[in-house]
Amino acid sequence: MSLKVFLTALAIIDDLGAVVIIALFYTVDISFPALGLTTLFLACLIGLNRFGVEKLWPYLVLGVVLWVAVLQSGIHATLASPWR
């Protein structure tokens, strides 16, 4: 059992490391206003969760807007969109 957990954790950490390397070395231009909006929308999603909002539509709306903000921020498309 512990070997399965170790190998799963290793695979996850390896994937996260690859995503961080792509984000750091393959991002060309970063838009800080878009990153600021990303932070704002992420905080709104966290706030909805903290206040116990159970309806789906606020999460969907803020999630789509968050995705667009990340896409417009200039972060490498591997992190923002599979279609870019």
Account of the protein in words:
75% of the residues lie in helices and 0% in strands. It is built from 4 helices and no strands. The longest helix has 24 residues, at 2-25. It is flat, with a radius of gyration of 16 Å. It starts with a helix and ends with a helix.
Secondary structure blueprint with pairings:
Blueprint: H1 2-25, H2 32-50, H3 57-72, H4 77-80
Helix pairs in contact: 2-3
Provide a brief overview of the structure:
The chain is an all-alpha fold. It is built from 4 helices and no strands.
What are the salient characteristics of this protein?
84 residues, mainly alpha, 75% helix
The end-to-end span amounts to 40 Å
Please, how many helices?
Answer: 4
What would the principal axes of the Cα set say about the shape? flat
As a whole number of angstroms, the C-alpha radius of gyration is 16 Å
Spell the H/E element sequence: HHHH
Would you report the number of β strands?
0
Q: Output mean pLDDT.
A: 86
